[in-house]
Amino acid sequence: MSVTLHPAIKELDTESLCYSIYTQLYHNFFNAQDKKDENHPWGIVEGNEISVRLHNTAYGFAEAIAGGVAGEGNGDQSGILMDYLKKSGGDMTGMLRANYGFEAGYNNTWIIRTYLKQGVIYGVRFNGDVEIGATNLYIGGKRIISYDNQTGTALFINRDISFSDSTLHSQGDFIFGDSKESGVYISPSTLLVKGKEVFHAGNANLESVSWRMLDGLISGNLTVKGETKLSGMLRACRGVEFGIDDKVIVSIDKQGTVNLNNYLSFASGFGIKIGNIPVLTRINGENIQLGAAGGDLLLGSEYTDKVRLLANISDVDGDYVLVSKYGAAYFPDSLTVRHNYGDNLLSSYRVDSNDEGIIVHKKLRFGTSRGAYLYGKSDGISFTSFVEHITPDKKTVFYYEILFKYGISTSRYQPQNRISDSLIISTNADFITFDKPIESKSHIGIDNSFTRLTAGCLFFNNEQYFLASADGIKHHGNAYFLNDLSSERFSSGFAGSGWAVMHNKITGNVAATFDELTIRKKMRIYELEVQKISATNGALWVSDNCSGDTVVRL
Prior knowledge:
Among the domains are: 7-69, no CATH class; 245-296, no CATH class; 335-448, no CATH class; 449-548, no CATH class. 7% of the residues lie in helices and 29% in strands. The chain has helices at 17-31, 49-69, 201-204; strands at residues 103-106, 109-117, 121-126, 136-139, 142-148, 153-156, 174-176, 184-186, 191-193, 196-197, 240-244, 247-252, 258-260, 271-274, 277-283, 287-290, 313-314, 321-323, 336-338, 344-352, 355-360, 364-365, 373-376, 380-390, 395-408, 421-427, 444-445, 452-454, 457-459, 465-468, 473-476, 485-486, 500-503, 510-513. The chain has a five-stranded antiparallel beta sheet with strand order 22-23-24-25-26, with no helix packed on it. A five-stranded antiparallel beta sheet has the order 27-28-29-30-31, with no helix packed on it. It has a four-stranded antiparallel beta sheet with strand order 7-8-9-10, with no helix packed on it.
């Protein structure tokens, strides 16, 4: 592995801020990657090169953040947020705690301090003016309580006063309004509104008394034994339960969740709407239409393990099954394949029934994502692979391609009565090597040359060629031999074997050796050296210098 774990990571203090930031960042980085599985062979797994890079990256960020905040790391030990409040003064950005005593003042004079009396009584003392006012109490810059010294009355001045869920106790009376007769009067024994008594449990909680009101507010429970009829809207914002035979069918809890304990039944043409747009509709009594309210229809979420298909998915007309529940796929219109939102990699096309197929827009790999691949060019198709040259010092990889295309033929043997084209195979490698025999049903030749090899004949042109015969090879055209010419086995001398026409590299002479030599017509010899002459039933003629035109046997 070329990437190693940063050595400082193993030395981190697990209680330090740097370690806390580093672990959180790494888990976030790791969980954001594709996990390694059958569909993601390049995915991340703990310990591989990608995870080591994420460890190092998380540590780099954590060291910089911790060094700036708390002075951790290898940098400056001060930290930009250390010493929140200096003795010489400053601005605070955090909470001030003084759980063992506190005193504050101005110009070396205390104004407020905490105290502990007899070990059990805690309190706060003020020394000086407190911004409350002699007759007013301000909260949030607004006057809340005002005191009238003349009447001895405390006034609560605010539009709304809420006691939340507290219990309010009073031994006296409450008057809401100008007076007891014109307002609301409440005492421990009486409740009057504009001087009239209000009915309550003591005088109105009877089954024989009918009740009629304009508005009603019930603080407890409302129990109705008979039928309830509502001619207006029913509002229940604190929770709702509906059911039948004391069984709750629909309920709304405090979190606002609607709980359903039975089926929803819709008549034909009805269903569920969102924003006045139907998203679930029963059609024709059997079919169900599921849609979105002007956006996308999303299946599943971050908490969904998988979406399981329990039925086939067909086209809009229902004629063709596009995806079966077992994974068979059929795309009658078109098919386009992309990866990670990149360019189109694979698509289908159709011009007519005679021209339709699949287009591979980029590389078609074999084996792995680094394997050999095919890709199309404007005039042909290219196959690309690589060769590794490994030496003790390094490994070098060279990529080569071979191009298959059609082009105008330049053969000397092309037909003369029509246009001729050729299949052209070219490569940027140095050679093309075949590890099996090459066979052709016609001939093997050299482009733009008359040289060709056919069955039993090697042509150089129409006049010069080698032709196989029944017992040998016929040579058409002149023969020029630059070196020796001999039988398969040859040895010189009187007792030798074979034959040869050999060039003597020392003297430059050419010597021929045969067992017998027959010359039908004239033989011209500039120098004749005979090792032995034998005559049988004839005469022996020896002469220093003579010639004979005719020899007649006597």
